[in-house]
Amino acid sequence: MAKNKPIVVMGLMGSGKTTVGRLVSAALGLPFTDSDPYLQTRYGASAAEMAASVGADVLHEREAAHVLDALGGEPKVIAAAASTVENSRVREALKDAFVVWLDAPDGVLTERMKSGDHRPGFTPAAMRARRGSYLREVADLVLDMAETTPEIACRRVIEAANQ
C-alpha cells in the first residue's frame, strides 16, 4: 500500500516532519516534498517572512495549496505544515492518503524551536488547542517523537502504511 497512495507527515513545528519525511521517502523510493522549500521556491520567501509580510491567513492558504497540489499525481511523501488541517478541502483530500501525526510534548517542541527563527512566538499549547482535534481526525498513525528516533519512526510509518 505504501507506494500506492501518498504518505503525509504532519505535526506542529519541531516535531520532525522534514526529517522523518525524508527518511520515509528514501526508504520507499518515493518523491519528497516539504512545505518550507515549496514556499521558498514558489514565493521567494520563508514561512516566517510570509507571515510577517502578507499575514498568517495568506501563508496558511499557500501551505494548503502545497498539500493539495502534492496530493495530485503519483504517490509521494509530503511534509505538510500543521496549519493545513484547518482547511476543510485539505482534510477531505487527506482521506485518500496515509496520514502520520508526529507529536511531542509542548516543552519538547518549544525547546526544539528555540534554536531557529522559523516562527517567533511559537506556542505549542495554543497550536495544539487550535489544531489537535483536526490532526486526530485525519491521522492514521500517531507517533510521539519524544519517545522515538526518526529512524524508528520511519520504520513504524512504513510498517503501518503497508498493513
Furnish the topology, listing elements before pairings.
Blueprint lengths: L6 E5 L5 H12 L3 E3 H9 L3 H7 L2 H16 L5 E5 L6 H6 L4 E6 L2 H8 L10 H15 L2 E4 L5 H12 L2
Parallel strand pairs: 1-3, 1-4, 2-3, 4-5
Commentary on this structure:
With 163 residues, the chain is of the alpha/beta class. It has helices spanning 17-28, 35-43, 47-53, 56-71, 88-93, 106-113, 124-138, 150-161; strands at residues 7-11, 32-34, 77-81, 98-103, 141-144. It has a 5-stranded parallel sheet, sandwiched between helices. Helix 1 packs across helix 8 (150-161) and helix 3 crosses helix 4 (56-71). The longest helix has 16 residues, at 56-71. It is globular and about 40 Å long. The mean pLDDT is 91.
Question: What's the quick description here?
Answer:
With 163 residues, this protein is α/β, with parallel strands linked by helices.
Mean pLDDT: 91
| Residues in β-strands, percent | 5-15%
SSE order, one letter for each helix or strand: EHEHHHEHEHHEH
- SS-derived structural category: alpha/beta
> In order across it, which strands form the biggest sheet?
2-3-1-4-5
Radius of gyration: 15 Å
Provide the descriptors you would attach to this structure in a database record.
five-stranded parallel β-sheet; single chain; 163 residues; alpha/beta
